[in-house]
Design a protein that fits this description.
Layout: H1 2-27, H2 29-36, E1 41-46, H3 54-69, E2 74-79, H4 90-95, E3 101-103, H5 106-112, H6 132-144, H7 149-157, E4 161-167, E5 173-177, E6 194-196, H8 202-209, E7 213-215, H9 222-228, E8 233-236, H10 238-244, E9 250-257, E10 261-266, H11 267-272, H12 275-300, H13 303-311, E11 314-316, H14 320-340, H15 345-358
Parallel strand pairs: 1-2, 1-3, 6-7, 6-8, 9-11
Antiparallel strand pairs: 3-10, 4-10, 5-8, 5-9
Helix pairs in contact: 3-12, 6-15, 8-14
């Protein structure tokens, strides 16, 4: 009887140990991964651009890709055209948990963190007025560089933001005038002109360097301002101007501002996702950069001829001597920005290195 009692005690002990072991297995990280595989996640996205723009098309492409790669476990809920909030509130909105992601613009991001105004530096990337691919190649190398775009992404992480991609929807922002008599050629031809500026810290300094003045005008009022001579011209990118059919007559190919369009999400939200979904977001972000690069190359290859044939815009191709003159005249802007934003030192160093390498 005593022996049987001991066996019964051993049997009960083994049973409880087995149950305990099963519970531990169910609560292990592997068990959580199994549970995550059945859970779905929806990221709330806000951006300021209308449906039909490349910005919105990129977000739709991103959504389709992450759904496909995650077997439907991860998707985007996209709000375009500033439906949820103004563009300058989107990055703060990410940090406050109001939204999870935005497809922003470097000049907008600069209002949150001035390091993004780095892309407003003139002649930032090597370029050939007659071959857009020279500029696009150099910009692409910088974005993919560990001491360039990837370093800037690390700076964003320090502020609670995860940069998934630095895509682009256009070429560099050049100089446009509404009257052919005010066509810009050398630096002296730009003196005293009133140009609509994209804002920020750097572009106004560049205008001062060429003795022009910058005026801030809402996009809705710009066509009238150009027609009535309130401004002589503007600084903008060619695909945007073509799509919006702004009343201008000349374009001069100087790389005045270099916009990038980062896809940014909450670092906290990113960290809360399962590892496999994090990896999908990272890889899809890299692929978006490649996709966007191919789209822009195709569109800008014929943009100057389309502008002339369809909208009567003539394009001025600066000479080598004029380009060197502009570089020399605007060089102090680089020094001024470097003093205001010491964190940009490594970015500037890398940009200059890549320019030297591609010459």
């Amino acid at each position: 009887m005593l022996k049987g009692g001991k066996n019964m005690i051993r049997y009960k002990t083994l049973t409880w140990l087995l149950i305990f072991a099963l519970l531990l297995t169910a609560c292990s990280p592997r068990g959580n991964k199994s549970a995550d595989a059945k859970e779905t996640y929806v990221l709330r996205v806000s951006h300021p651009y209308q449906m039909g723009t490349l910005h919105h098309e990129y977000m739709e492409w991103f959504d389709q890709e992450i759904q496909k790669r995650s077997n439907g476990r991860l998707s985007l809920e996209i709000y375009s055209g500033s439906q949820l909030m103004p563009p300058e509130q989107e990055i703060p909105g990410i940090l406050q948990g109001q939204i999870d992601m935005t497809h922003s613009l470097s000049s907008i991001a600069g209002s949150f963190d001035p390091i993004w105004y780095f892309f407003d530096l003139p002649f930032l990337f090597n370029y050939d007025p007659k071959d857009p691919n020279v500029y696009l190649d150099n910009r692409k190398k910088f974005i993919e560089s560990e001491q360039g775009g990837r370093l800037l992404a690390k700076m964003a992480e320090e502020k609670g933001l995860k940069v998934l991609a630095m895509s682009s929807t256009d070429l560099f922002a050049s100089l446009w005038t509404a009257n052919k008599s005010k066509k810009i050629t050398d630096t002296s031809s730009a003196a005293n002109l009133k140009l609509r500026t994209p804002g920020g810290q750097v572009a106004p300094d560049t205008l001062k360097a060429i003795k022009a003045s910058g005026i801030s005008i809402p996009g809705t009022e710009l066509p009238t301002a150009l027609q009535q001579g309130v401004v002589d011209g503007l600084i903008t990118v060619p695909l945007y101007l073509y799509d919006n059919k702004l009343p201008v007559k000349t374009q001069t190919l100087y790389p005045f501002v270099n916009y990038v369009m980062p896809v940014i999400m909450s670092q906290k939200k990113f960290d809360s996702l399962p590892t496999d979904l994090q990896n999908i977001l990272i890889e899809t972000g890299k692929d978006l950069e490649q996709h966007a690069d191919q789209v822009v190359r195709k569109k800008v290859s014929k943009i100057y001829s389309k502008l002339e044939q369809e909208q009567g815009v003539t394009t001025y191709y600066p000479t080598h001597e004029e380009i060197e003159q502009w570089k020399k005249t605007t060089a102090p802007v680089w020094n001024s920005y470097a003093k205001k934003e010491p964190r940009a030192a490594e970015l500037i160093k890398e940009a200059k290195r890549l320019i030297r390498e591609t010459k």
